[in-house]
Amino acid sequence: MITYGLFINGEWTKAHSGRTYEVFNPASGDPIGTCADGDEKDVDRAVEAAHQAFPEWAALPAKERAIILRRAYERMLDHKEELGELMTLEQGKPLVEAKGEIQYAADFVEWSGEEAKRIYGETIPSSTGDKRIWVHKQPVGVAAAITPWNFPASMITRKIAPALAAGCTVVVKPAKQTPLTACRLMELFQEAGVPAGVVNLVTSTRASAVGDALLEDGRVRKVGFTGSTKVGKLLMKKAADTVKKISLELGGHAPFLVFEDADLEQATDEVIASKFRNAGQTCVCANRIYVHESIADRFTDLLAEKAKELKLGNGMEEGVQIGPLIDGDAADKVEEHVKDAVAKGARVVTGGNRRTKVGKAPGQKAHFFEPTVLDKVTDDMRVIVEETFGPVAPIQTFRTEEEAVEKANNSRYGLAAYFYTRDLARSIRVAEKLEFGIVGVNDGVPSTVQAPFGGFKESGLGREGGKYGVEEFLEIKYISLGLK
Predict the structure, then answer these.
(1) Which CATH architecture has domain 2-250+459-481?
(2) In what order do the strands lie in the sheet with 245-249?
(3) Positions marked active-site
(4) pTM (2 decimals)?
(5) Residues 258-313: pLDDT tens digits?
(6) What are the respective helix, strand and coil percentages of the chain, to the nearest 5?
(7) Identical fold between 2-250+459-481 and 254-448
(8) Contacts of 388 (CB under 8 A, 6+ apart)
(9) Aldehyde dehydrogenase domain spans which residues (predicted)?
């Protein structure tokens, strides 16, 4: 059993209430650790620590902040195996994926540290000879990071690394299901030389209470959130009371278009990589697959054949490619979506079943779902209307490019979209017409640390990654100097 308290002002401490909660392995249902269960008073302590640490951290030369972040990056890589195993234990994803995420998470730290040295101001020509105009960028202040359970490391570093690079101090609230990875990251950041109070962590089972406390506190000037659109809208409303800067990476319902000239081997491989990574529990995974009618049968058969080969099981076992869903509620939703589709006429080409016992998993407490491919899918089915967040690939057909784009854009979400074609002109046309913040053209996994990540419409506000992510933590100050 792993035990952690709250990390506030450089020290591990109990929650004010003294309460704790257990963390469970989703592959078995067994407890693996205990964390402090923080509340509003703990948030106040963490925010005060960040508030007090802010002036000195903001005044530190960017090069020195970059050196500290570089050390944090190196510490993460030194402990890549350990962090990967810890993540698999609490989140369930296959160990290979977990270690890949640690690399991705560390890369955000490295990139942001390098970007700290490139936060430039500007001189603007004045209209008169007796004035000088300067534009100065400075850190916004204390930033709060509220992160999800599906990527326990990278969603933290994608927020706090650019914040630290910009000169902000932070308070992190990780998901209740996956706090252990976050706690270990705090230890590594401390070992790397991040000063007391610059990074703080409040674990809690009471997401609403902790979130409200962060949003109501005037000392918190920026909030970054990754999670559902429903919760994001509530945070956006509450942030308005203190006019905080806010970044929201919300729900996605990504379309994947396969045109008649696509390489089917490559296209199906990319659908597998996009759809079934992390058991379909990603905001950018392919959720609606639209295939040209002339190749639909061949595509469906090939995709189903490859989906059948995916090994389901405990992520710590050799060769496992699909781990468990995070909990019973997640499995319930996937099962309901499949049953709804079948009841309305969809055909299960492969998979379709919920399972509790897989391989060495003991059963009953775990929640697995077979990699599933559905065809004969229609627009009134929940798998097309809602984000499933599970390993289910629903296939529909289209006749024309215009119809495909219309179907893809027919969603209130606009996070990621994908399409496969060999036609260069079509690549440009379709990429420009898709109403999504991220478009993968012949690329099912486009995420990278140096590019902007974020969505259109109800998929969020702001961007994370590259220089764009750092800019979210900066204020722009205009200075006019009179020479009279």
Answers:
(1) 3-Layer(aba) Sandwich (3.40)
(2) 11-13, 6-8, 199-201, 169-173, 142-146, 220-226, 245-249, 460-461
(3) 249, 283
(4) 0.96
(5) 999 999 999 999 999 999 999 999 999 999 999 999 999 999 999 999 999 999 99
(6) 40, 25, 35
(7) no
(8) 280, 287, 333, 334, 337, 382
(9) 12-479
